[in-house]
Specification:
Strand content: 5-15%
CATH superfamily: 5'-nuclease
Radius of gyration: 16 Å
Number of helices: 10
Mean pLDDT: 95
Low-confidence stretches: none
Number of domains: 1
Distance between the termini: 40 Å
Helix content: 40-55%
Order of helices and strands: EHEHHHHHEHEHHH
Strand order of the largest sheet: 2-1-3-4
Length: 188
């Protein structure tokens, strides 16, 4: 079965995985869309007390087990990865972006595999645009999930209200939400 792979950055994972479970490795829709994260996600999470505190549920077994569905690279793709990461890192520095190591790794993998990446991070989007990596914002992915009947509007409204409650709204959330869904963004 052919899949349409989509890479999910850390922030998108934190925003989606609690309510859309299992999130990773499970094809959905006509095109068999399938979401993946990178190996670096675990390093980033385990080395950040702030992330572990704010998103404590990530450590639960059911989420940990689902994160075993990581995107894979062939040997040739792995060989290109370090060079591509260095290229992206140099570009981020020259563009005065604060893109982190794991974010650069995710962008490099999306670039090598020619798959879209889900992110709301402004610097990641800027770097992705520079190298023509396709970006999907979280609210856009949720619209796709709605269209493909993976989630419903009630779930979307609840998720956005929760993000507002925990103060983790994507950049331009209210404007993007209204543009995508044709209604005012939910309040917490």
């Amino acid at each position: 079965m052919t899949q349409y792979k989509i890479l999910v950055d850390s922030n998108a994972y934190f925003r989606l995985a609690l309510e859309v479970h299992p999130l990773l490795g499970k094809p959905f829709g006509q095109k068999k869309y399938c979401l993946y994260i990178i190996e670096g996600f675990e390093r980033e999470y385990l080395h950040s007390g702030r992330l572990q505190t704010k998103f404590h549920w990530v450590a639960e077994e059911k989420y940990s087990k689902n994160r075993q569905k990581k995107i894979t690279l062939s040997r040739a793709e792995k060989n290109r990865l370090n060079e591509t990461k260095n290229f992206f890192k140099d570009a981020a520095i020259s563009m005065d972006l604060t893109t982190g190591t794991v974010d650069i790794e995710a962008l490099a993998i999306a670039y090598i595999l020619k798959v879209p990446i889900v992110t709301d991070d402004g610097d990641m989007i800027c770097l992705a645009d520079e190298f023509e990596v396709s970006v999907i914002k979280v609210l856009e992915l949720m619209k796709l999930m709605l269209t493909e009947k993976l989630i419903d509007m009630e779930k979307i409204r609840a998720m956005v209200a929760y993000w507002r409650f925990i103060r983790d709204l994507p950049k331009n959330c209210d404007a993007d939400y209204e543009k995508i869904y044709g209604e005012k963004s939910p309040k917490s």
